[in-house]
UniProtKB/TrEMBL annotation:
It comes from Desulfomicrobium orale DSM 12838. The lineage of its organism: Bacteria, Pseudomonadati, Thermodesulfobacteriota, Desulfovibrionia, Desulfovibrionales. Mg(2+) binds at residue 234. This is Delta-aminolevulinic acid dehydratase. One of its GO terms (cellular component) is cytosol. It is an enzyme of class 4 (lyase). The keyword Transport does not apply. Zn(2+) binds at residues 120, 122, 130.
Length: 325
């Protein structure tokens, strides 16, 4: 018996540390979100609450994606900001909608890039909710499913590789799966935002996607941050309904949820490092209080260590372009 354990033996050099490293981060794990705006193809407007992230017109999006792909980006997710919004969010399912156009152009230029389509109504509805609203101001579940399914089919028709429903209506994975299969897209996977919390960390995103609810909040459909067991039920339901990949969102405040979901199910698990997580790091770094890259990488490795197989992060492109992988 020795007197004490010498953990430092395996930390003595970079090579030694790399040899025993348990978790690795690679460009192949990361999905970069982009906000594509319909109003002006040449638009490039920095999002005030997300420094370094932009609302992009179609032409600018192509330039941005081109740079990211050259740097090693393998996957991206698109959010649309349409010119016209209405109570039904009809642009979400329009074949010439802004996201559908963007998907087609990206797949034409870079067929190998994995294009994920966020499927939701909130960016497209005039009231900013993720579902249809009754005259009493309630968010209607079942009548919304048809619209979500139509949006998903239209995104798949445009060439989306993965459909990612983020609305949190009950039954939407089943509705989308059925509609995709009927339209001939049996091979298009669904990555559901299965465990999505009603989080204040989405604040900056709502500026970026211009999808803040005009009244009330999302607490009747997104989850209570206090609940973990409920998250497992949500994940189980989505897997039952046909989800191929499930996602936990936000990321860092919910590492315990990622771990429990990872241990409870055998499907791939995604984590979304959301806008507020990004903006916190950016703001502190811009003040000189923390090292942006180091903190971003530490947060991402934390998400992987907790059990995430893939990560949606606004840092993806920057890290790649800076040569971090
Ligand atoms: C749409 C959607 C949201 C996010 C992703 N998809 C906003 C919301 O639910 O309010 C948030 C992403 C982020 O904050 O980075 N429903």
């Amino acid at each position: 018996m020795y007197a004490f354990h010498r953990g430092r033996r395996l930390r003595s050099s970079r090579t030694m540390r790399n040899l025993v490293r348990e978790t690795r981060l690679s460009n192949e794990d990361l999905i970069q979100p982009y906000f594509v705006v319909e109003s002006d193809p040449g638009l490039r407007r920095e999002i005030p609450s997300m420094p370094g992230q932009f609302q992009l017109g179609l032409d600018e999006l192509m330039i941005e994606v081109g740079g990211a792909v050259d740097a090693g980006l393998k996957a991206l997710i698109l959010f649309g900001v349409p010119r016209h919004k209405d109570p039904e969010g009809s642009q979400a399912g329009a074949d010439d909608g802004i996201v559908q156009q963007a998907i087609r152009r990206i797949k034409d230029n870079w067929p190998e890039v994995m294009v994920v389509a966020d499927t939701c109504l909130c960016e497209y509805t005039s009231h900013g909710h993720c579902g249809l609203v009754t005259p009493q101001g309630e968010i209607e579940n079942d009548s919304t499913l048809e619209l979500l399914a139509a949006a998903a089919v239209s995104q798949a028709r445009a060439g989306a590789d993965i459909i990612a429903p983020s609305d949190m209506m009950d039954g939407r994975v089943a509705a989308i799966r059925t509609a995709l299969d009927k339209a001939g897209f049996q091979n298009t996977p669904i990555m559901s935002y299965a465990v999505k919390y009603a989080s204040s960390f989405y604040g900056p995103f709502r500026d970026a996607a211009e999808g803040a609810p005009r009244f009330g909040n999302r607490k009747t459909y997104q989850m209570d941050p206090a609940n973990a067991r409920e998250g497992l039920r949500e994940a189980a339901a989505d897997i039952d309904e046909g989800a191929d990949i499930i996602m936990v969102k936000p990321g860092l405040p919910y590492l315990d949820i990622i771990r429990q979901v990872r241990d409870s199910f055998d499907v791939p698990v995604g984590a979304y490092q959301v806008s507020g997580e990004y903006s916190q790091i950016k703001a502190a770094a811009m003040n000189g209080w923390i090292d942006e890259t180091a903190v971003a990488l530490e947060s991402l490795i934390g998400l992987k260590r907790a059990g995430a197989d893939l990560i949606l992060t606004y840092f993806a492109q920057d890290l790649l372009e800076a040569g971090h992988f």
